[in-house]
């Protein structure tokens, strides 16, 4: 695919794959967050307050390790019941699964990757494209894809082949005068 405008260097275009990899890296971080969310049984990290006494750093680390050993995915006790004494209080800090906009995250990821290569989401039946799909939308998506993405790409290939390949068999003046075309 053709290169994209590079805001950091006007003479060196930015390859589309580099743009996509940046997008993929961001989306990978989102995926990691969601994975950790599910690995935690849908229960985000919280705050364990010990009331009435001040903990040293070593005591806090030991308490944290004990909590994680009991209630993490690795322990196999994901849905185990936590028991706190009268001096401890747990406060939730993150979001529950129903509070996450997972539909929006999915749409965001798909559209950013497809946009990088100029592919309408509907023509590959991505969720983002199917969200508002109709038959006429599909026809319009294909027209747009051919006219803007593939048409431009094929024009660039034709120009490159004309100047690199055709000049080996015909005089360059005939080619530049458009009397011979590929």
What does this structure look like?
The chain is mostly helical. The protein has six helices and two strands; from the N terminus they run H-E-H-E-H-H-H-H. It has helices at residues 16-39, 57-71, 102-117, 127-130, 135-164, 172-176, and strands spanning 46-50, 88-92. A two-stranded antiparallel ribbon has the order 1-2. The protein is elongated, with a radius of gyration of 28 Å.
What order do the helices and strands come in, and which of them pair?
Layout: H1 16-39, E1 46-50, H2 57-71, E2 88-92, H3 102-117, H4 127-130, H5 135-164, H6 172-176
Antiparallel strand pairs: 1-2
Comma- or semicolon-separated keywords:
single chain; 182 residues; mainly alpha; 2 strands; 52% helix
Strand content: 5-15%
Uncertain spans: none
Helix content: 40-55%
**Count of helical stretches:** 6
Structural class: mainly alpha
Helix-strand string: HEHEHHHH
For the largest sheet, list the strands in their spatial order: 1-2
- Average predicted local confidence, pLDDT: 76
């Amino acid at each position: 695919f053709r290169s994209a405008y590079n805001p950091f260097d006007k003479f060196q275009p930015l390859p589309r794959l580099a743009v996509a990899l940046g997008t993929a890296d961001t989306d990978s971080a989102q995926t990691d967050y969601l994975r950790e969310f599910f690995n935690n049984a849908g229960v985000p990290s919280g705050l364990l307050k010990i009331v009435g006494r001040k903990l040293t750093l070593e005591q806090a680390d030991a308490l944290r390790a004990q909590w994680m050993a009991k209630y993490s995915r690795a322990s196999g006790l994901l849905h185990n019941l936590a028991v706190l004494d009268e001096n401890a209080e747990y406060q939730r800090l993150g979001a529950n699964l129903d509070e996450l906009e997972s539909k929006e995250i999915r749409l965001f990821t798909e559209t950013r990757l497809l946009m990088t290569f100029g592919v309408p989401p509907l023509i590959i039946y991505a969720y983002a494209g199917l969200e508002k799909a109709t038959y006429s939308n599909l026809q319009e998506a294909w027209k747009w894809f051919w006219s803007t993405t593939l048409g431009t790409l094929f024009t660039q290939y034709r120009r490159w082949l004309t100047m690199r390949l055709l000049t080996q068999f015909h005089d360059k003046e005939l080619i530049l005068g458009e009397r011979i075309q590929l």
